[in-house]
Amino acid sequence: MSSFGSPIDMLLAPAVGVAEPHPLIILPFCLMLLAIALMPYIHGHWWEAHYPKVAATLAAVTITYYVLILRQAGRMIHVAHEYVSFIVLIGSLFIVAGGIHIRVRGEAKPWMNCIFLFIGAVVSNLIGTTGASMVLIRPWIRMNKYRITGFHVVFFIFIVSNVGGCLTPIGDPPLFLGYLKGVPFWWVLRKCWSAWALVVTALIGVFYALDRSNFLRAPRGVRDLETARETWKFNGMRNVVFLAIILGAVFLRSPPGLSEALMVLAALGSWFATPKPVHKANDFNFAPIREVAWLFFGIFATMAPALDYLELHAGHLGLDSSLKFFWFTGALSAALDNAPTYLTFLAAAVGGQGFSLGQPPQVVQFALLHDHELIAISLGAVFFGAFTYIGNGPNFMVKSICERAKVRTPGFVEYVLKYALPVLLPILSVVAFLFFSRWQVL
Q1: Which of 172, 234, 383, 387 is most buried, judged by most C-beta within 10 A?
Q2: Do 377 and 345 touch, CB atoms closer than 8 A?
Q3: Which helix (H) or strand (E) covers residue 304, if one does?
Q4: Which 3 state secondary structure label does DSSP give 197?
Q5: What is the chain's alpha carbon radius of gyration, rounded to the nearest angstrom?
Q6: Do residues 376 and 326 lie in contact, with contact meaning Cβ atoms separated by under 8 Å?
């Protein structure tokens, strides 16, 4: 582990001497997305058995191209750093959260579910969307165990895993990258709170309508059962210390490898310090993190040409308004990892105004003088990260945990067509109109 820089260093480091990839090499990334989206429907059993081979094969095509054709082995080493840092963070949070058992009091009535989601949205700003997702998804499943369905999973991802973490740099990786580049810590809260409140309120409102209908359709006996005799109870609270260590480690940028080493030690400490009954109560196993590790190995490797091509051609996209920055950042954050997408468009915006992303004082000036462009990039990256399972790190993890818990979870295509497009897109279109159009009112 000592050879790797911190998770943030890997993303902040400039891609020195990046050669332009041929557009066709983006094809493995497209195939990777199509496989994730369609193979569970075409041949589910085959996919469950062979998805590691598919991910490794497609990744090998991209790696071979960069090493042998472009002579850019350093670019692939950089990608490997990013991937290891990502998996260490996600994996350590997964293990520590698996040692925290929360039993929720109440009957999981619609109003209680709404309160839980709102609390999750706030907590996401304190421990990050990944931390909040890993800690809260299991109690969310338990409190709705008698009537949980697909939309419960989707709205948890919308609110807790993505939109909720829009108020602090801790909340979501793109915002943290902006903070390290020079964006003032409290800038996000001061500038983005109204959009956060609008989107969180709208999503919870839509969820309440769906959940109330679901609750009223449930048999009266099921409604009476729920979890009325349970109380608020927390087991494994010693893991809060390990969680704090992981979150603190994210801020460490030197010496190289210290951040990841602390995360691994925290995960090991949590694993051995957590009583076995707590792991059993959480039905804890390593299958979800194993699936995420293989799939994101393929995604990280095959995504590199798309990101490089975007970086080299961002200046040709005609980004001359905050509205365009919002939609372009959002659209690509939905299909690519939202953290590097945020940095790409931030660099384009800062450079377009004559500033340098490598100079924190100039980034501060940009944030003060051109705040609308930065707001657009920030909201586009965070909000649209919820648009697909691969838009943000915790999305796929939540999906995997729910599937292992035998919860009916929408597939990739169903997630987009049934929920993201009809629910999330109209709400984000309202955000675009109110905040970034020529008729903006906020």
Answers
A1: 172
A2: yes
A3: helix 287-313
A4: helix
A5: 21
A6: yes
Q: What are phi and psi of 189, to 5 degrees?
A: -60, -45
Distances (CA, A) of 183 to 159, 176, 191, 342, 365: 24, 9, 12, 13, 9
What whole-number distance in Å separates Cα of residue 221 and Cα of residue 114?
A: 22
Against a cut of 0.90, is the pTM above it? no
The set of residues, in sequence order, having a beta carbon less than 8 Å from that of 403 and lying 6+ positions away, is 288, 409
- Given a contact cutoff of 8 angstroms between Cβ atoms, the answer to whether 418 and 304 are in contact is no
Q: Do 151 and 207 touch, CB atoms closer than 8 A?
A: yes
Rounded to an integer, what is the distance from CA 353 to the centroid of its chain?
Answer: 29
219: how many CB neighbours lie within 10 A of its CB? 10
DSSP string, 376-403: HHHHHHHHHTTSSTTSSHHHHHHHHHHH
Write out the two tokens for 110.
């619609």
pLDDT tens digits for 5-19? Answer: 455 554 455 444 557
Between CA 408 and CA 102, with CA 215 as vertex, the angle to 5 degrees is 65
Quick check: is 434 in a domain?
Answer: no
Q: Round to whole Å and give the CA distance between 154 and 146.
A: 17
Query: According to the model, what pLDDT value does residue 10 have?
Result: 47
Domain count, the chain: 1
User: How far from 232 is each of 117, 227, 323, 425, CA to CA, in Å?
Assistant: 16, 11, 44, 36
In a domain, 149, yes or no: yes
Report yes or no on 347 lying in a domain. no
**CA distances from residue 316 to 35, 74, 159, 347, 415 in whole angstroms, order as listed:** 31, 26, 33, 13, 32
Computed over every residue of the chain, the mean pLDDT equals 85
Query: What is the CA 60 to chain-centroid distance, rounded?
Result: 25
Question: What phi-psi label fits residue 168: left (phi over 0), alpha (psi between -120 and 50 degrees) or beta?
Answer: beta
Model confidence over 173-185: pLDDT tens digits? 888 878 878 889 8
Q: What span, in angstroms and rounded, lies between the C-alpha atoms of 245 and 228? A: 35
Residue 235 has pLDDT above 70, yes or no: yes
HSE-up of residue 3 (Cα within 13 Å, Cβ side):
5
| Chain center to CA of 86 | 11
| Whole-angstrom distance, CA of residue 34 vs CA of residue 38 | 6
Across the range 320-348, mean pLDDT stands at 86
345 within some domain: no
Residue-number span of the structural domain to which 132 is assigned: 7-313+395-402
